[in-house]
Structure formats: structure tokens, C-alpha cells
Amino acid sequence: MYLSHPVRRMRDDPFDDETAELRVEPVDDDARLALDDHVESLGGSVEKELQFGGVVVVLSESDVAALCELDGIERIETVDTLGY
């Protein structure tokens, strides 16, 4: 799984009071469904579907590490990195 530098920083040293807006790209439809369930279980939300299978996810920075543990994710980047 590819993680952008800012996502690795959030995973390793999160700010407890900050929210992360991330572009997450699941590998297939099954992973996409698992992503929805996992994000919801973390108290986050899937905000928007993007072209080519990516989604925008919003959750606490302190939950980024748990998001990164989910199988079936190809890449996670910050929304700001992509100029969304």
C-alpha cells in the first residue's frame, strides 16, 4: 500500500484534536465495501466518490493508523496533496 508522506506522519504521530481528509483507493468492490464499514466503525465518514474508484474519507487523525491496517487498500493520500 502506498501512503503519502503526510499520511505516514498522521499514522505515526497523530494530533488528537485534528481531522484528516484522505483520498483512499480500494483495490476492488469488496475492499470498497469493507472500507465503508471500517471507516464507520472508527467514527468517520465517506464523503465523496471520486473518479476511477477513489473516495474521500474524513476521520480523526488518531484513527489513521487503524485505517492503514485495513486490507485491500491500494493507496492513501491527503485530499490537499491532490488539489481536491
Classified by CATH, the class is Alpha Beta
Helix count, per DSSP?
3
Helical coverage, percent range:
25-40%
Whole-angstrom Rg = 11 Å
Topology-level CATH name:
Alpha-Beta Plaits
Overall 3D shape = globular
Task: Give the distance, in angstroms, between the N- and C-terminal Cα atoms.
Answer: 21 Å
| Global structural class | alpha+beta
Number of strands: 5
Strand content: 25-35%
List unreliable stretches of 5+ residues: none
N to C succession of SSEs: EHEHEEHE
Architecture, CATH level 2?
A: 2-Layer Sandwich
Read across the widest sheet, the strand sequence of neighbours is 1-5-2-4-3
Average pLDDT, rounded to a whole number, is: 93
Domain Putative peptidase inhibitor: 1-83
Protein name: Putative peptidase inhibitor domain-containing protein
InterPro entries: Peptidase_inhib_put_dom (IPR058957)
Pfam families: Peptidase_inhib_put
Summary, kept brief:
This is Putative peptidase inhibitor domain-containing protein. The chain is of the alpha+beta class.
Task: Tell me what you see in this structure.
- This protein is α+β, with helices and mostly antiparallel strands and 84 residues long.
- It has one domain: Alpha-Beta Plaits, CATH 3.30.70.2980.
- 31% of the residues lie in helices and 32% in strands.
- The chain contains three helices and five strands.
- It has helices at 5-12, 29-41, 64-68, and strands at residues 2-3, 19-26, 45-49, 55-60, 73-78.
- Strands 1-5-2-4-3 form a five-stranded mixed sheet.
- The model has no long low-confidence stretch (mean pLDDT 93).
